[in-house]
Amino acid sequence: MTNLMSKNTPSSHTDIQSRGWWHWLPASWHPFIYLARLDRPIGWWLLLLPGWWSIALGATSLGVMVWIMMLFLVGAITTRAAGCIINDMWDRRLDQRVGRTSARPLTAGTISMLQAACF
C-alpha cells in the first residue's frame, strides 16, 4: 500500500497540513486556524458560491451586489468556522480515538474548551 498522505502533513495519521498560507502568521494563531478549518476553504466555498450566484441574479446595481457579496463572504467563512468549532467541542472525546482526528487542537489539548468557545 502506498502512502497517500502529502509530505506536508506532520504525521501519516492526520489530515492537518503543517504548511500553507497561515505559516506566515504567528505560531500561536495556528491552532485556531486549524480549529476553524481556515486552512481548508472548500467548506465555505460550498456556502458562498450558491449565495453569490443568487446575489448576482437579484442585485439591483453593481455597488449593491459587491457590498452584499462581501457581507456574504464574511458570513460564509464565519458560519463554516463556527460549525467546525462546535463540532470539535462536541466530538473531542470521540476524536481522540480516531487517528485522522486525534491531532485536532481541542483533541490534542493545544487549546482549551474556553479558548475555543471564546474564539
Counted by DSSP, the helix tally is 5
**Shape assignment:** elongated
Structural class assignment: mainly alpha
Distance separating the two termini: 40 Å
Task: Compute the CA-based radius of gyration.
Answer: 17 Å
What count of domains describes the coordinates?
1
Average of pLDDT: 83
Main beta-sheet strand count, sense and barrel state: none
- Helix % is 55-70%
Low-pLDDT stretches: 1-12
In N-to-C order, the SSE pattern is HHHHH
Strand content: under 5%
Question: Can you tell me about this structure?
Answer:
This protein is mainly alpha-helical. It has one domain (29-118). Helices cover 56% and strands 0% of the residues. It is built from 5 helices and no strands. Helix 2 (42-58) packs antiparallel against helix 3 (62-95). The longest helix is centred in the middle third of the chain and has 34 residues, at 62-95. The model is unreliable at 1-12 (pLDDT under 50).
Could you name the key traits of this structure?
5 helices, 0% strand, elongated
Briefly say what this structure is:
The protein is an all-alpha fold. Helix content is 56%, strand content 0%. It has one domain (29-118).
How are the SSEs placed, and which strands pair?
Blueprint: H1 30-35, H2 42-58, H3 62-95, H4 105-108, H5 113-118
Helix pairs in contact: 2-3
